[in-house]
Amino acid sequence: MRLTAGEAAQLRALREALRGLAARNNGLDLPIDFELLKRAAERAKFGLEFEPRARRSRLVPAAPGFAGGVGRILGEVHEAMHDGTWDRLKICAAETCLWAYYDRSKNLHSRWCSPAVCGNRDKVRRYRERATKAAAKRRRAPLPTP
Ligand SMILES: [Zn+2]
User: Fold this and answer.
1) Where are the domains of the chain?
2) pTM of the prediction?
């Protein structure tokens, strides 16, 4: 299936809306286009499918083609929001990264996609900020009297 330029743009917008939703799991406040999510869900024409053996139900998009494909993504998000795994999908707190990652920590407190890369970069940035403030404070301090 080849995407049109408009469909590719819709997928990018959907990705950003989902990034905004996942960012809330990490305490970040990125914009979320709720109207876009609502329209995409309407176009997917969801139905409810029951799985008697698993004693479960799930949302299944009835729409064919692109709208149905987007619906399958939204259906997975819906499922994750109900089985608790969505809370673990986070957005890296580094402003220059904002990469989505799955938080596998026991206490759900990870903030970086990679502690070794983004976490370390943040540590270095904060260290430099403290060093700059301390240097400015020393420059303002009166000279010791002999
Ligand atoms: Zn990152």
Assistant:
1) 5-140
2) 0.80
